[in-house]
């Protein structure tokens, strides 16, 4: 059985149901208010994700979260724009969110993943996804996150002056330009690590 199905992830159009596994607000204003409320909630550990496609360069995804250990930023380059679609970068951002989950030892709070691409959110919960290879990578990351108790996927409007959403947008652009680093920022210091895994050779040419 699919892990997302076991977690009970099903699309729900709602503007305020913070307990729903998937929240897709009806308007940009409602989405911005929900995102702000979740980000400021002590019951939620929020991870912002984004994907980017730069013509002539490439496609990549990123995830960013302010955790008790510091701010964690993960980036992954997928490949050239001729071989990948922008939505694949968005799905990659969701995969990286699950990699951040694996880096946080104590997850007493609900994991809330905020993404500005409804297509990507619906794709990872689709029983017959168009981008099956990447979606399976997301589901695999969910399966191995043994400390994950509850996940909440939320659509957040892009370019709506939400600080962390704007920040992860910049990181996704860096990923699309070839940046595959993971950065941990704590107490004024930044630690940079290599890509969490070698995906480039495996993903290349698999877009549909």
Protein model, in words:
One of its GO terms (molecular function) is RNA-DNA hybrid ribonuclease activity. Pfam families: RNase_H. It comes from Favolaschia claudopus. This is Ribonuclease H-like domain-containing protein. The protein is of the alpha/beta class and 208 residues long. It has a single domain, classed as Ribonuclease H-like superfamily/Ribonuclease H (Nucleotidyltransferase, domain 5). Helices cover 35% and strands 26% of the residues. The protein contains seven helices and eight strands, in the order H-E-H-E-E-E-H-E-H-H-E-H-E-E-H. Strands 1-6-5-2-3-4-7-8 form an eight-stranded mixed sheet. Helix 3 packs parallel to helix 5. The two termini are 24 Å apart. The N terminus and C terminus are likely disordered.
The low-confidence parts are: 1-19, 200-208
What class would the helix/strand composition place it in? alpha/beta
N/C terminus separation: 24 Å
Report the principal-axis shape: globular
CATH architecture: 2-Layer Sandwich
Series of H and E elements: HEHEEEHEHHEHEEH
Major sheet? 8 strands, mixed
Largest sheet: spatial strand order: 1-6-5-2-3-4-7-8
Q: Write the CATH homologous superfamily.
A: Ribonuclease H-like superfamily/Ribonuclease H
Mean pLDDT metric:
81
Q: How many runs of DSSP E, i.e. beta strands? A: 8
Q: What is the CATH level 1 assignment?
A: Alpha Beta
Q: What is the count of helical runs?
A: 7
Radius of gyration: 16 Å
According to CATH, the fold-level topology is Nucleotidyltransferase, domain 5
Please, how many domains?
1
Q: Could you estimate the helical fraction of the residues in percent?
A: 25-40%
What proportion strand?
25-35%
